[in-house]
Structures are given as structure tokens and as C-alpha cells.
Amino acid sequence: MAKLINPEILLEINHLYKRFENMSAPALNDVSLKLHKQEVLVVLGPSGCGKSTLLRCMNGLEHIQSGEIKLNGGIITKEGTDWREIRQNVGMVFQNYELFPHMTVLENVMLGPIRAQKRAKKEAKEAAEILLERVGLLEKKSAYPRQLSGGQKQRVAIVRALIMRPELMLFDEVTAALDPEMVREVLDVMLGLAKSGMTMAIVTHEISFARSVADRIIFMDAGEIVEENEPHQFFTQPSTERARKFLNIFEFD
Ligand SMILES: Nc1ncnc2c1ncn2[C@@H]1O[C@H](COP(=O)(O)OP(=O)(O)O)[C@@H](O)[C@H]1O
Ligand SMILES: [Mg+2]
Question: What architecture is the 9-98+168-248 domain classified under in CATH?
Fold first, then answer.
């Protein structure tokens, strides 16, 4: 079942340290990891352990105190990095992704490629329609965000990131705010992306989804990576007591 892992490293994090002002403990403490091309990494851990901060560091939404992040071998955590450019290559979807309310689905999706990438309107429209079709939302292209369900909005948010042709996609609890019946449709889009070979880092509390999508699991606690493991091993025989306790709160089928 395990897919062959591409030996090429897309993202490398070395000894990342991040402390928010006014916080006594660091949000990230000596975090190091490698993400290979086409690999799906799932980050698990209790609330407040630093999962969101880690993802946000990967596309420059947080300032770090020390350590480094490399993308395709180049250090991006340094002066002069064009984060706008990096963010086109590293797409991110959040729990509450705000679409522009006064724009249709199609307009929301076409904005990035036209404005930031100076792509031709016709090409952007074609690309948008192909991606909307892929997530089952082509018939909603002229709808406004208020006319969509939460699950549909999240699928549009994913398309908005994908149309920039990112090499890496970050997902931070994208289903956490959804009604249960809409969770599946969003997870299925993510599974499809993983199958298509997209490199992904995913924070989720959907444990059975994590188990099915992940090539590798990172378990964090209090700003540190406590365990890094292959999914089957992690879910059946975690090697740390803290991971065991964490998994105990979930029910398995
Ligand atoms: N903007 C912020 N200012 C101050 N502290 C923050 C900020 N964002 C997160 N933190 C703190 O950093 C730690 C890690 O938070 P976070 O990365 O959001 O955790 P998680 O996503 O795992 O729940 C927590 O202690 C949180 O309170
Ligand atoms: Mg979080």
C-alpha cells in the first residue's frame, strides 16, 4: 500500500524556534522535518501544541526567531524573500477561509491568477472551470459565496489555492467548522489531490482520514515533535506514551 517516496526534498525545516511575544513557552521548539515531493504529511497533536504555527511558518505568515526553512533547496526564512511569490507556490487553506462576498465563485477563483500571476483572463477562466469541475462545483460558478454551503465554500477555497499551481498545499483543520454531513465532500477532494501526487501538509482531527491519506505522521506536543512515524505504526503501536494518550481519546472503527 505504501507508495514509493520521491527522494527529492521539497521542503526542509531545520531547528525552527518560534516564540510569540508575551508567551513564556515557545510555540515551536527545535522543530525539524523534511517533506519529500508528492508526500502527504499529517500533523497531529492536542490543541495549542503548535500545529497551526508550524503551517503558518511554512508560508511566511509567522516571523521566526531561529532555525531555517528551505523550499526546493533555497532558504526562504531570510531577508529579501518574496513571500508573495512563495505563497503562490505554497497554497494554504484555513478553517475559515473568507471568499470575497461580492464576487461570484468564478471571480473569486480567477482573481489570484489574473492579479498576482498576470495570467490572461481567458486562460484563468478555463483553468478555474477545470478545477471547479474537479471538485464538483462547476454548476456553482456564477453563485455568490452566501449561496453556498460551508462544504462548498471550502471546496472553492481549495480551488482558489490550486489555480495558482502550487507545489505544496497546506491544510489547517479545513473541516473543523463544517457540519458533519459536509466533512466528507471536503476530505474526498483532499484524498483526490493526494492521489494526484500533490505534496501536502495537513492538520486535522479527522483521525480515520489522517490514517488513510498520510504517508507520514508527525505528532506534536507543547511545540515539539514528539513522534514521527509511518501511519500504520503510529495508529496501532505509537512509540511514545504521549501519542498513546492522545489516540485514546479517539474511537476507532
Ligand atoms: N498570534 C498569537 N499570539 C500569541 N500566542 C499565540 C498566537 N498564535 C498562537 N499562539 C500560541 O502558540 C501556541 C501554539 O498555537 P497554535 O499553533 O495555534 O496551536 P494548534 O494549532 O496546535 O492548536 C499556543 O500556546 C497558542 O496560544
Ligand atoms: Mg490550530
Answer: 3-Layer(aba) Sandwich (3.40)
Q: How far is the CA of 19 from the centre of ligand 1 (A)?
A: 9
Please list every protein residue whose CB sits less than 6 Å from any atom of ligand 1. 20, 23, 27, 45, 47-53
Q: How far is the CA of 38 from the centre of ligand 1 (A)?
A: 28
| Residues forming beta bridges with residue 219, ordered by sequence position | 44, 227
Q: pTM for this structure?
A: 0.95
Amino acid sitting at position 237: Q
Residue of 200, 236, 201 lying closest to 220 (CA atoms): 201
SS3 137: coil
Q: What b-and-e string marks burial along 157-178, b requiring 16 or more CB atoms within 10 Å of the CB? A: bbbbbbbbebebbbbbbbbeeb
Residue 2, pLDDT above cutoff 60? no
Q: How confident is the model at residue 182 (pLDDT cuts 50, 70, 90)?
A: very high
Q: Is the pLDDT score of 251 beyond 80? A: no
- Strand 66-71: give its sheet, edge to edge: 28-36, 9-18, 66-71, 74-75
